Amino acid sequence: MRQSRLFTKIEKNPPKDEESLNALLLERGGFIHRLMSGVYSYLPLGLLVLKKIEQIIREEMNAVGGQEVLMPALHPLENYIKTGRENISDLFHTALGNGSKFVLGQSHEEVVVPLVQHYAHSYKDLPLAVYQIQTKFRNELRAKSGLFRGREFPMKDMYSFHLTEDDFEKYYDVVKKAYIKIFERAGIGGKTYFTYAAGGTFSKFSHEFQMLTPAGEDTIYTCEKCRIAVNDEIKDVHKNCPECGGALSGPKKAIEVGNIFPLKTKFSGAFGLTVKNEEGKEVPVFMGCYGIGLSRLMGAVAEVCNDQNGLIWPESVAPFSVHLVYLRSDDKNVRAEADKLYEKLTVEGTPVLYDDREDKSAGEKFAESDIIGIPVRAVVSEKTLKSASVELKGRGEKDFKLVKISEIKKYVK
């Protein structure tokens, strides 16, 4: 992508109406734009990051046997009456002109159970896991903290269906490991803990994945030996590590980046979802649900992957692999060589943001490059071309190195 054609611009000053670091960095860098509190547009650079996160999640969900679907965002209120969730505080309610009442989906238990009920009738149809990546709506009283707490946001939610509780527990552990892989691939694995937590409206206990950050809304206590944590809300139950019995370290601030819940038969029972077992007897179906907010994960990466100059995207979720920077020159050959290198890298499959702008100084370009935070910056100038080279610098590094243009593919992906 040529930066001269990018319709968004770097904000010279941080937005005045944002307090969270992730929103300040992402808005200033031209990744997102706030329409109103808790509702954002994802701009070209931001959408590229979001799509990379989406692909990581999709790959890991497919690897554990999840089947991708897309369910409606508009749900009949009567389904929520069946499960007793029609009055939960974060539902958006709406109605048709004829008086029919609906809600906007903040999760999809009330939709996925009738869907599976239509197709699953026998033990032979289980186990089954379906997931979607779709927009969710939550009537947050105080949408705050940038992408951490929104009113409209993209989310991956998966639901699994099992003949026995034992089969569910085995699959639950498989998904837990897949979630750990997702956060490792997204670049925050070292700061993220599998966390024992309260179950909310679903069950007595659940599990979260909490990322350490001073901006966190939650308080956790960690066991470094087991790489697990306990949420402060159940600290009276788990005074020591639930796995090794050792002392817990804390308190520490953290933000939830994912969660998994054992639903048992709460929702399948509400809709009468049963299947015939091998003896031909109708038995209840055990369920689990597994959620990750894509935008929240994007905000979490931005919150911890940065320095005083701007973002430092991990390669796995960066909008581009290389930020190619052309330094303005009276020598037309400099521009020609920069254009040629951009075309070469693009043809070879390297994602490149090419700063081909003629109206920006070297200092302005370098400052904006740091704000955007692409992993590698490659500079083409009169000086570098004297040795048929480019100047390469990692975003988180202080020093640069000269690399022959003919050898640049050894250093970039």
Give an overview of the whole structure.
With 413 residues, this protein is α+β, with helices and mostly antiparallel strands. The chain has two domains: 35-307, Bira Bifunctional Protein, Domain 2 (BirA Bifunctional Protein, domain 2); 322-410, 3-Layer(aba) Sandwich (Rossmann fold). It has ten helices and 23 strands. It has helices at 21-28, 44-63, 77-83, 109-119, 165-185, 266-271, 294-304, 332-347, 362-372, 382-385, and strands at 32-36, 39-42, 67-68, 74-76, 92-95, 101-104, 128-137, 152-162, 192-198, 205-212, 218-223, 228-231, 249-264, 274-276, 282-284, 286-293, 306-307, 310-311, 322-326, 352-355, 376-380, 389-394, 401-404. Strands 9-10-13-11-12 form a five-stranded mixed β-barrel. Strands 20-19-21-22-23 form a five-stranded mixed β-sheet, with helices on both faces. Strand 9 and strand 10 form a beta hairpin. The longest helix is centred in the middle third of the chain and has 21 residues, at 165-185. The mean pLDDT is 94. Keywords: Aminoacyl-tRNA synthetase, ATP-binding, Ligase, Nucleotide-binding, Protein biosynthesis. This is Proline--tRNA ligase.
Could you outline the blueprint of secondary structure elements for this entry?
Elements: H1 21-28, E1 32-36, E2 39-42, H2 44-63, E3 67-68, E4 74-76, H3 77-83, E5 92-95, E6 101-104, H4 109-119, E7 128-137, E8 152-162, H5 165-185, E9 192-198, E10 205-212, E11 218-223, E12 228-231, E13 249-264, H6 266-271, E14 274-276, E15 282-284, E16 286-293, H7 294-304, E17 306-307, E18 310-311, E19 322-326, H8 332-347, E20 352-355, H9 362-372, E21 376-380, H10 382-385, E22 389-394, E23 401-404
Parallel strand pairs: 3-7, 9-12, 19-20, 19-21
Antiparallel strand pairs: 1-2, 4-6, 5-6, 7-8, 8-16, 9-10, 10-13, 11-12, 11-13, 13-16, 14-15, 17-18, 21-22, 22-23
Helix pairs in contact: 1-7, 2-5, 2-7
